[in-house]
Amino acid sequence: MDRIEAMRVYTRVYERRSFKLASLDLNIPASTVTEVIKAMEKRLGVVLLERTTRRVSPTIDGETFYHRCISIINDVEEAEHGFSTSTPQGLLRVDTHGTIARHFLLPQIHT
């Protein structure tokens, strides 16, 4: 799982305050959610979430990280959306023989 997807997992756990509910929302096993969060905490060297038998609560570092994740996820989605909805723009130059241009290209351009 890449880091952006791991951030999505983390933000869902943070918002739902539950590994199980996050796993149901994301349609992935709860064990995967647990592994992702543990790996993230290990990579960052901080505890992001305090775990009890009934609840998950963010630490101060977890709060800070959540807000950074939301910002990053929004930036990525905005960047991807900009490309997926845009129409091609700009100048297109085609170099071809005059006969091909007259018989094939120009009739297509004028229709």
Automatic annotation (TrEMBL):
Q: Where is the HTH lysR-type domain?
A: 1-59
Q: Which InterPro entries match?
A: LysR-type_TF_proteobact-type, LysR_HTH_N, WH-like_DNA-bd_sf, WH_DNA-bd_sf
> Which Gene Ontology molecular-function terms are recorded?
DNA-binding transcription factor activity; sequence-specific DNA binding
Q: Name one Pfam family in it.
A: HTH_1
What UniProt keywords are attached to this protein's entry?
DNA-binding, Transcription, Transcription regulation
Domain of life, source organism: Bacteria
Keyword field contains Transcription regulation: yes
Q: Which BP terms does GO give this entry?
A: DNA-templated transcription
- Family according to the record: Belongs to the LysR transcriptional regulatory family.
Q: What is this protein called?
A: LysR family transcriptional regulator
